[in-house]
From TrEMBL:
Organism this protein belongs to: Parnassius mnemosyne (clouded apollo)
Pfam families, sorted: DUF5641
GO MF entry, a single one: nucleic acid binding
Domain Integrase catalytic: 1-120
Protein's UniProt name: Integrase catalytic domain-containing protein
One biological process term in Gene Ontology: DNA integration
PROSITE patterns from the UniProt entry: INTEGRASE
Length: 232
């Protein structure tokens, strides 16, 4: 576990050390064993070096930006805000990072959840929330989470697409590449994966259309509607 040197983190670390010293000797081996089995180590980055934590600070920035837009002036209780943040945590940890399996029948991707839970995150299908049902607080929370998902998912997928200037050629999509197919109606935690089977260049030699295979079939898709995984 990595963190910066904020006073809240330093204070928590000091409190845990004092608590560990206070515990009876017979409980200390159990704590050490649990930390060893779970590989729990708390490391602080260098002081006055926030860029050392850029990997997580960038995600914190994204969450704050979209969360402010989604919640707006809504007044939420602590439990409601905690519920939304927990669901947003699941959304962020479900994003595909690199290819885990290139099986043509059902490709899969490695996600942050595999490192945290040793398995991908699963969720029950979320019902589409209509505006007239926002009288109920639970429906309101679902609506806020769906709104965050729609905003952040498109923001993340757009970041995966390389945009070069027109006078600069980019690396073309090749057969066998695992991609995320952009689906505007994808429910939360759903990242439609596909494998590029063939590329169809235009007369000028530029590939603008590809054939992709998903677990449900084979389809023609424009290159602008697919995103290669970040690491592949």
């Amino acid at each position: 576990m990595y963190s910066d040197n904020g006073t809240n983190f330093k204070g928590a670390a000091s409190y845990l050390r004092d608590l560990y010293k206070f515990l009876n000797v017979e409980y200390r081996p159990k704590i050490e064993q649990e930390c060893a089995e779970s590989r729990i180590i708390w490391k602080f980055i260098c002081p006055n070096s926030p860029h050392f934590g850029g990997a997580w600070e960038s995600m914190v920035k994204v969450v704050k930006a979209h969360l402010f837009r989604v919640i707006g002036h809504q007044l939420l209780s602590y439990e409601e805000l905690n519920t939304i943040l927990s669901q947003i945590e699941c959304l962020l940890n479900s994003r595909p990072l690199t290819v885990l399996s290139s099986d043509p029948a059902e490709p899969s991707a490695l996600t942050p959840s595999h490192f945290l839970n040793t398995a991908p995150l699963l969720s029950l299908p979320a019902a589409e929330v209509k505006s007239d049902s926002l009288l109920h607080r639970h429906s309101l929370l679902d609506k806020l989470v769906q709104s965050f998902w729609d905003r952040w998912r498109m923001d993340y997928l757009h970041g995966l697409q390389v945009r070069q200037k027109w006078n600069t050629s980019s690396t073309p999509i090749a057969s066998g590449t695992v991609v995320v197919v952009i689906n505007d109606n994808a429910p939360p935690l759903a990242w439609p994966l596909a494998i590029v089977e063939s590329v169809h260049p235009s007369k000028d030699g530029v590939a603008r259309v590809v054939t992709v295979r998903t677990s449900k079939g084979t389809y023609l898709r424009p290159v602008v509607r697919i995103c290669p995984l970040p690491k592949q």
